[in-house]
Amino acid sequence: MTLNKAMQQRLQQIANDQPYPLIFATVSGAHLYGFPSPDSDYDLRGVHLLPLSEIVGLKTGPETLDISKQLPDLELDLVTHELKKFMGLLLKPNGYVLEQLLSPLVIQTSETHQALKAIAPQCITRHHSHHYLGFVKTQWRLFTKETPPRVKPLLYVYRVLLTGIHLMQTGELEANLVTLNEKFQLAYLPDLIAQKVSVQEKGTLNEADISFHEQEYQRLVSELEQARDRSHLPSKHNAADAMNELLLQVRLG
């Protein structure tokens, strides 16, 4: 999944217009996952850097910035964390920030971004499975509470499960469902993805298929749990020292 040149430039301009310099900005959400609809919004995620004057004084700058834009032909959700906060999140079993950091849909980058990406593998542990197991339960609830059921939350269910299983098996993070299915070969996914990308966000599913997808959901949850139990990933990260050194380098020069 790539962005067209015009959209890339528009998002770069929005990133450049932020009140604090961005260490990186990447695209997350449906565009990263490989199934954007024609009317999907753009989820831009990144890290901003506060000046020392807004860190060491009594009046400190924002740790998180959340900006939404509704333009005639573009709906945008931009969330950035300050570098120290983002590093703290990376040192937890937090799949969200790993996916943001490692997204191939890069709008803005820097040497610090590349350094963070180099440290990222040291952050990954088998406990990241808890993130994906918890997240998928939420997505399944969203899917089952709607009548008629929508394709979008169901695709999120499969995306989360396959990302988690793949991470536990390989230590590599892959968020694109199309790419993941090249490995997992779930025969029903291409049709679901095609339906999502060809219609609007609220495309629905035949209710007769729910029992099948519930069985698949339970099967893949079990597979993720087994992948966690068999994983060769460490139980603890060893990235704290490298993160601290990088933070000091960025702050102090």
From TrEMBL:
<dbReference type="InterPro" id="IPR018775">
    <property type="entry name" value="RlaP"/>
</dbReference>
<protein>
    <submittedName>
        <fullName>Nucleotidyltransferase domain-containing protein</fullName>
    </submittedName>
</protein>
<dbReference type="Pfam" id="PF10127">
    <property type="entry name" value="RlaP"/>
</dbReference>
